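FORM 12-B: Structure-to-Sequence Request
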């Protein structure tokens, strides 16, 4: 029994990615508010066509909905940072409003709009299943409470049966659908991480890192672009074996990650070549000091303590002040400065701090 309860808790508490939830719920909230506005207008037209006037409860419902609409659009810049909670509040408010209107004392037949929306609306939310379950249960309980106002005993009893049964079905469907959506997103994200990362070192691979750097350049995000080669890496493989070579690559990758910010792009281009794009690092002296510290850290990576052989790297780079038009232009200049470093005897760096000039 305890194991079953543990599994249920894990199922209900599966985490939804915040950024994805924010994007999905923002789009869904726009759709719901637009649908609610159109529904209110259609209801007014039908009321006038059928009854020749608008009933007071419809006017009250329309006013409450307009409040939700105005509140949402007036606070939209702030709501986008907590859109999941806002999404839940708007849906709960709209469902409660519909239940209030549908279960009026003088109704002569069972309502159906609330029951349909009780199944559909919660499924639009990208959030933890337990929160969606709580929403459905609370709305079902509120509908039962509103149903006590219905005078017609036959309609009253019909409503109870429908509300209880639909609330149960809505709870099961919403929780299952929410869990399935979150799991699908997690699997896609996991697959994307695997596709964008180098399996040996764990940092970005050529495809993943290059794409991110291209996006930075296209957005004119300034930063320092660096090409890093491990000196005499072939000698390491030939003398100490490929297993030692792989270990050196992993250690160098860890040093590169720890030497730059988490937001910087660190990738393995292939073989013993690495590329870094340090976004926002545009001061030449800051970049120079960072590279000096990097060289010192790299020297601590030992190939063989017995032989006293440690790792050195050659670095070539360019500071992009936003003037470089493409990834290729940055790579070409940095590659030229890399060869300058190697020509000077390796184990060092050469860095260009000037703006881009088309050749």
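FORM 12-B RESPONSE
SEQUENCE OUT:
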């Amino acid at each position: 029994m305890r194991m079953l309860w543990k599994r249920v808790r894990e199922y209900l508490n599966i985490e939804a990615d915040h950024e994805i939830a924010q994007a999905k719920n923002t789009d869904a909230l726009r759709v719901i508010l637009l649908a609610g506005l159109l529904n209110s207008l259609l209801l007014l037209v039908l009321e006038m066509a059928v009854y020749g006037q608008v009933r007071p409860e419809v006017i009250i419902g329309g006013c409450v909905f307009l409040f939700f609409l105005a509140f949402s659009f007036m606070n939209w810049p702030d709501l986008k940072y907590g859109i999941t909670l806002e999404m839940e509040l708007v849906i709960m408010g709209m469902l409660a409003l519909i239940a209030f209107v549908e279960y009026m004392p003088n109704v002569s037949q069972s309502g159906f709009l609330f029951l349909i929306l009780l199944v559909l609306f919660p499924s639009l939310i990208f959030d933890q299943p337990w929160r969606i379950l709580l929403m459905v249960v609370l709305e079902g309980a509120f509908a039962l409470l509103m149903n006590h106002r219905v005078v017609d005993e036959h309609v009253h009893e019909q409503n109870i049966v429908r509300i209880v049964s639909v609330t149960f079905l809505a709870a099961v469907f919403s929780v299952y659908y929410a869990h399935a959506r979150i799991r699908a997103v997690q699997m896609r994200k996991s697959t994307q991480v695997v596709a964008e990362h180098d399996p040996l070192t764990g940092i970005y691979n050529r495809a993943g890192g290059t794409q991110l750097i291209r996006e930075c350049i296209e957005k004119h995000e300034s930063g320092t672009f660096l090409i890093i080669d491990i000196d005499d890496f072939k000698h390491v493989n030939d003398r100490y074996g490929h297993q030692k070579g792989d270990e050196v690559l992993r250690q160098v990758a860890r040093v590169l990650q720890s030497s730059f910010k988490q937001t910087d792009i660190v990738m393995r281009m292939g073989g013993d070549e690495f590329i870094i794009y340090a976004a926002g690092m545009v001061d030449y002296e800051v970049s120079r000091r960072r590279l000096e510290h990097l060289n010192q850290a790299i020297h601590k990576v030992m190939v063989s303590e017995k032989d006293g052989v440690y790792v050195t790297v050659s670095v070539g780079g360019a500071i992009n002040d936003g003037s470089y038009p493409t990834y290729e232009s940055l790579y070409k200049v940095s590659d030229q400065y890399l060869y300058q470093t190697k020509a000077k005897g390796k184990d060092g760096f050469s860095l260009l701090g000037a703006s881009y000039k088309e050749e």
